[in-house]
Amino acid sequence: MANRTAKPIRRGLKRAHLVYYLRVFTTDTHKLLGHLADITPEGLMLVSEHPIPTDREMNLRLVLPRAIDGKVEVEFGALSLWSRTDANPDFYDTGFRLVHIDEADRAVIRRLVEEFGFADKLD
């Protein structure tokens, strides 16, 4: 069950909201886990229809809005850190830290943020 009382961890990087609501899938089941709400090269937040358990490492695949550096998706391991009900009570927000990602895919995420994102203030 998701830990809805945990407070989000303060991040050192500004998060970037994207002009696209990108889909994130699990690589093991290939099922849609949620949609990307914001991202940095170190972590991300997903909005999902179901709560996501915390303290769980997952292998994820992010589908890009177009090819970036020849890639149409990136795969990475991410650790779920916190979860809470979204502003819309029909959805859940979950914060992840990227724990296994190669540098080429991290560079793709940086370009994604530069090209399709807009920064928010630090929390």
Instruction: Round the Cα radius of gyration to an integer and report it.
Output: 13 Å
The poorly predicted ranges are 1-16
Q: From N to C, what is the helix and strand string?
A: EEEEEEEHE
Number of strands: 8
| CATH architecture field | Beta Barrel
Helix content: 10-25%
Gross morphology is globular
* CATH homologous superfamily designation: predicted glycosyltransferase like domains
Nearest-integer average pLDDT: 84
Main sheet: strand order = 2-3-4-7-6-5
Q: According to CATH, what is the class?
A: Mainly Beta
How many helices? The count is: 1
Task: Characterize the main sheet.
Answer: 6 strands, antiparallel, barrel
Distance between the termini: 25 Å
Could you name the CATH topology?
A: Thrombin, subunit H
Give me the secondary-structure topology.
Elements: E1 16-18, E2 23-26, E3 32-39, E4 43-48, E5 57-68, E6 71-85, E7 92-100, H1 103-116, E8 117-119
Antiparallel strand pairs: 1-8, 2-3, 2-5, 3-4, 4-7, 5-6, 6-7
